[in-house]
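Handout, section B. The chain below has 158 residues.
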Amino acid sequence: MTLKPKETGSFSLETVIPNRFIPKSLYVYADSENVSFITELPCWPPIHFGYSGDIVDKNGSAIVEPTIGQELFFPVGLANNNDKPEKYTYFLQVKDEQGITVHLSWLTGTIETDGIITLAQSWIPENAGTYDVEILLWSDIESPTPIPPIHITAVTVK
């Protein structure tokens, strides 16, 4: 965007940061012939989370072919590089082939400043079939704000 002298305008700035970096904030510099400024902006989301796609048992061993009645765990990693503790709610939703929710559970908590934790929720399938497992993270239950991304994985139960 180019502005003429004394002209104002608004714009959006989107920054793509590789997953291996988890910044607390970023700086924006603006410069012209007459003015220059710097501003620090917090990064969103407040908590970074990831799901590798793994399905494990209670001991953390990989489950390759899930079966009816077997407890399946879905581990996620959370990181908080902010200068204050952050609340979270980790949702696990399982939908059958017709898109009907057959399981919904959640964990809530607070991750401390510069904290890194691994959480896992479980589901025990009662029927064979292919299910969509959705893993979502929200800021908290009281004033929920979804924190991207949403992870969806297909699970075939025999």
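Note. The mean pLDDT is 85. Compare this with the example in section A.
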